[in-house]
Amino acid sequence: YKKGPLVFYVNGKKVEDPDPDPGYTLLFYLRKKLCLTGTKLGCGEGGCGACTVMVSKYLPDTKIVKHFSANACLIPICSLHGMAVTTVEGIGSIQNGLHPVQERIAKSHGSQCGFCTPGIVMSMYTLLRNNPQPTGAEMENAFEGNLCRCTGYRPILEGFKSFTKEFCQMGENCCKNTGNCSNGVVENGTENGQTSDYLPLDSTQDPIFPPELRVN
Ligand code: FES
Ligand code: FES
């Protein structure tokens, strides 16, 4: 056992804590110590998903970075040594521009009181980091841990369907209606040259995993 500071990253910034309190959860640390209040406290016991963030870890055996959606209210802060955390503040904002996940939930009216929204956004964002074009079923499964008391889920799923393999943007002109399909699959918001109303998903704009944490 080697004693030393707790080192991890939050939204691309290094956090080095020489004397972390092992009783703190990640959620408490984010909200109280780092003043990142976008991640919400709902139930505090892993049941609602309001506190969902993305935790990224380098896997030396396979040399890949794996992303996990996680309940920040359940994660002991000291377990994050060597990992990277992404919160809703780290993917987009009104000031710096929304991420496509945020833009699509807003345009589909999938946010009412908004309390569940950061967690739902982070579950979708994490899915897309691991799988840029999921199926509709994979997309629905990604929200197993997220509750929303306002929207009834339909507008959330409608907005995020636009990221899935099955999404067709042709509306009434869809091949299912016309029998004239040249492709039927939309990629990143365009189909057959038609420009989407949505911001395209561009994975080249995603923050990189901190090189310092790629330790074999
Ligand atoms: Fe409800 Fe974390 S606050 S799951
Ligand atoms: Fe209110 Fe989901 S928008 S809980």
Describe this structure in words.
This protein has 216 residues and is an alpha+beta fold. Helices cover 22% and strands 15% of the residues. It is built from 6 helices and 7 strands; from the N terminus they run ββαβββαααααββ. The chain has helices at 26-33, 100-107, 117-130, 136-141, 154-161, 175-178, and strands spanning 6-10, 13-17, 52-59, 64-71, 84-86, 190-191, 194-195. It has a 5-stranded mixed sheet with strand order 2-1-5-3-4, covered by helices on one side. It is globular and about 65 Å long. The two termini are 18 Å apart. Residues 183-195 have low confidence and may be disordered. The chain binds FE2/S2 (inorganic) cluster (2 copies). Residues 41-44, 46-51, 71, 73 line the site of one FE2/S2 (inorganic) cluster.
Order of helices and strands: EEHEEEHHHHHEE
Chain-averaged pLDDT: 89
Range of strand content: 15-25%
Distance between the termini: 18 Å
Question: Which residues sit in consecutive blocks of at least 5 with pLDDT less than 50?
Answer: 183-195
Main β-sheet description = 5 strands, mixed
Query: Which word captures the global form?
Result: globular
Give the names of the bound compounds.
FE2/S2 (inorganic) cluster
Number of strands: 7
Looking at how many chains there are and whether they match, the oligomeric state comes to single chain
Helix percentage: 10-25%
The number of helical segments is: 6
Helix vs. strand class: alpha+beta
Strand order of the largest sheet: 2-1-5-3-4
- The radius of gyration is 19 Å
